[in-house]
Every structure is written in structure tokens, then in C-alpha cells.
Design brief:
alpha+beta; D-Amino Acid Oxidase, Chain A, domain 2; globular
Amino acid sequence: MNNSRVMIAGGGIGGLALALTLQQIGVPCVIFEAVKEPRPLGVGINIQPNAVRELYDLGIGPDELGQVGVPAKEWALLGQNGQEIYSEQRGMLAGYNWPQYAVHRGDFHMLLYHTFCARAGADAMRLGQRVSGYENNPDGTVTALITQSDGSVTREVGALLIGADGIHSNVRAQMHPEQPPIHWGGAIMWRGTTMAKPIRTGSSFIGVGTHRQRMVIYPISPIDPDTGLAMINWIAEVTYDDPDARGDIGWFRQVETSDFIHHFKDWTYDWLDVPNLIGNAQVAYENPMIDRDPVDTWQDGAVALMGDAAHAMYPTGSNGASQAIIDARVLGASMLDHGVTPAALKAYDQQLCEPVSKLILRNRGAGPFGLLNMVNDRCGGKFDNIDDVISAEERADFMARYKSAAGFAMETLNAAPQTIQDGSKLS
């Protein structure tokens, strides 16, 4: 029995980022992961510069990230006629000290998994074991209840337990038994990838449409020099007026493109052919845009939440994976300051819970895509000159406020000290 170790519930992106951080600073840890065999799931996600900075500090740099995605060059919102509403360079092109990466989520997850196993040993991740509950002990330690794949339950003791077990977190459910059900506002997303020619810069993140119906499109692979094609990640989204109208929603399921392509059958322009993009997809998945209401604390004694277990949020600002990585690094820094103790969890909770809770609510309001809604409200989405609809100053101010709330305002991030100084070890 190792009472000094940190137990991590869940081996997703957040749990692995925490495990890599703890391994880096010399804190023993073990991950309990419900699946028996990790495999690459999902399609594209973005990792913001604040999180890429932390990955670099973990020794996961451009060579590794270049194997699972590409640096994003531009973020752009466009009208359906292809005219620009707002655009800005991203990553180092914009002046950040670190790039922004658009990656294949599954491949990125596997990169973290294999990196952790190589550094800490495969036995540091217990597969087929789910944390189903916990007990805070009188001596300050915590007991995790582990449900095995055969249904039996074992008990493991550690110094701390971190719930990184996602939106359906058992740890959160025990910590906040009165929490409301998962929140769904009526938006359905269909995600897929298609080999196609990238638009604009060749590595642009593009949003088109409104809150009611939109497309998000960006490449997650380099352009093939022979074909001129890249793997394009796309998200097709429709919001239903009556959320109860769709009672057959799966949390995440593979679907046929014929199930939803009719929503975008008229989205054919001289610069973008959405039916063709969707119709040529290798695979497509459906899931609702869901989150959870914020809670007032992520801590209960020797137990804390992180990632989606703490702050599941709408993906409108590409913050989910990035914030999970930030959580991991702040937790590591707090342990360096306070030891592997509940005091470290309290410091982490006090630093992040309130501002990230505000971000959850901000993302419900369409996040940075709120500009599309403003344009639609003012002119029905049709315009000849965007400055006649919304001024450049108003557009820039809107985006600056969002980036500040999300924690990746450029000047602040570039000037910030490392979350964990190079060579730091828990003494």
C-alpha cells in the first residue's frame, strides 16, 4: 500500500496531462482507467497557446505535436457569401511565444498515453478499472473504491484522489450529489473528417453561419504535396427550438451522413461546397452540445476534480482540452508549493474554480461565435461591407474580452512565468 501516491480517476487527456506532470516533479501516481484498451477516439480539437506552452514544458514539443496535427495560422468568421466578418492570425504568427495546434483528438490522446507509459512504466496505468466512489479517511488520506471489469470492487488508499473521469464523473456525483442533470440547450453537432483542399491560408479555422445553424472547418493534417489535400475536420451544427423534439440523442455515436446532410443541402457557394465536404467524409459522429452547471468548489478534503469532471463546457471556444491541461499544471504547481496535501487542492480550487465557472457560462452564450449571431441579428447575415454592420473596433473588443476570459490573452500569457519551473521537484 502506497499512501503517498496520487490516485487519478480517468486516463483521458486531463488525467494523462496530470500524470505526466506528477512524474515530472517526482510525485508517485497511478491512473485508474475504465477502458481495457485505450484507442484513438474522436476527430479534431484545438489546443490553445496557453496549453501548448505547458506541453512544451512537459517535453512534448513541435516534433511530437507535428505527428498528430498542424499549427493553426488563422481564426476566421465568414458570411455565407465568403466575405470576412472577423479574422486574426493565430499562434506565433499572431505574436504568441507558442503556436496553437489543430490536432486529431484520438491521436493526441494516444501520444500522451504512450509518452506516460514510456516514462512511468505501463503498470502506472491500471486498465479496466473504474473509480466508482471514495472515502476521506481520518488520517487525511483517501480511499478510492475501484470497480473492476468483472464487477467486483476493491479499495485503494492514497494521499490524494483526482477525479479526471469526464462529464459523467462518479467522483463529481459523490462530491455534488444534488447537482442538476447534464445541461443540453438543443444544439446537435455532427463531426467528421474529409480529405479536401484547405481554405484560405491552408491552416485556417473557419466558422460560418449563426447560433441556429453553422459549420466549423479546419485542417488537422499537413497538405499532401502530391494531391494538395489535407484532412479537414468539420463540425455541422443545428439548434432545435424544442430540445425535447430529439429524444433519441446518443452522447456520442457514429452515424451516416445521410442522417443530417439535408440540413446543409443549400450551402453551396463558389468558395465552399458543404454538401460535398460532408458527403465525402470517411466517418461521422453525432453528439449533443452539452455541459454541466458550475459548482462552487472542486474539492472535498483529499479529493479534487479536474477537466470535464470539474468544468464540462460547450466547445464553442476550443477550451475543453486546453483547460484540462492547464488544470493539470496548476495542480502540479500547487503540490510543489503545499505538498501532496489537501492544502494543495484548496489552492488549486481557489485559483481556477471561479474563473473557469464563468467561462462555462460565457460559452453557453456562443463564445467567440457570438459575433456571427450579432451580424445575423443586425442584417440577417447578408452584407456588402461588414463595417456598415459592426465596426472593426467592436469586433476586436468582443474577441479581446473572450480571449482574456479564456486565459490566452497574448500579452498576459507571453509575460507570465512558467507554471512549473524547469527542474522543479517535490523535496
